[in-house]
Amino acid sequence: MSSEVFTQLVDAYYTPLYRFALSLAKSPADAGDLVQQTFFIWATKGHGLREAAKAKSWLFTTLYREFLHGRRRDSRATSLEDLPPGEADVAAEDVDRATRMDASAVVVALQTVDEVFRAPLTLFYLEDLSYAEIADALGVPIGTVMSRLSRGKAQLRAALAQEETAGKSKVVPFPGAQGRKRS
Amino acid sequence: MSNNEAKFILGAYRANGRDADDATFGAALAQARSDPALGAWFARTRAHDAAMAAKLREIAPPVGLREAILAGARASRAPRKDRRFPTMWLALAASVAVLLAVTATFWPNRAAAEAAKFAAFAVTDTARGGHEGHGEAAGALQSMLANPATHLGAGLPMDFTALRTSGCRTLNFAGHDVLEVCFQREGAWFHCYIARAGDFPARAAGAPATFTSDPHFASASWSDAAYHFVVVSNAGVEAVKRLL
Considering the entire predicted model, what is its pTM? Predict the structure, then answer.
């Protein structure tokens, strides 16, 4: 892959990748590191992919794997599949709240969603990947993606309401925070 | 299909409408159009999803992230050229390196002997290829080295520790860390090896550059107050001299 093509790839995807990473890592610095690491792996391994169309899914998959590789697994994550189904109904107030809250507060609320739901939910909201591509990226069946989206949305709505009530958005240092310098 | 089943499926329908042609949603979408209650739910869900998507689009990556990615990739991609070196080159380079090292052993001047050993080490490593390295600092140094206006012999401002800890390729020579950065000028690849002067005190600071050349690799060795340098290339000794 030429330098020009690589630059185009970075320009096309580093922003959505960062947004995805931020929802996972909860820290702008760690999110930046994840994105850099993902492109580093591409530069050293992923360039062998012949189908450029697969680059997008490959990047999201790799970033997610790097995140899973880097974080400590806790016991909570293994029991989330046993949670009851989420509330499917969306109230008009939920829509109003999501519209009026600022982006930093929304991200904080998103970061409180259980990780197993947060990854597909963020990819869904980024709108770059279809549900089938999300399933492929995360390595889960399509039905599981749909189930996690339903539960994740319910958790998120609750988190948004809580976040707004608590007024935490006034003290969140995002998105102006800068990534940690690597050197 | 019950409304609950339709909700389950429509929950994966992106608010921007990019899934409109996906047959998976066909029946559920039709049901939402014909069932007012389901239709109202779907409208609220899409509005909520659209609001969330819009919020995420407001998030901007940190300033400098793009540049850091590109610089890191340059640092990691440069060595790929080396992997194309034929095995024969490696054998020849190894022979030259051994010759340099043996010669250095009997060198009357210890400083010159160390310089020759360092050059031999660098030539061998260049021929071996497989270089890997990354990091913002390495990318910045690589850019500086690749700049035709940079005269390597005039001194290179750098932070050795920062380079090493941020991912710059680091080797071990005689028990000490040596950094290696690949760069390109005039279409040719060069490999700069950097050792701390304090790790090799026998070599005098400011020693004049010395050059070696064989049919495949040329090298230049010099020192300043802080570092010892070797640059190796297959572009010929004149190309190496022009760097300084």
Answer: 0.53
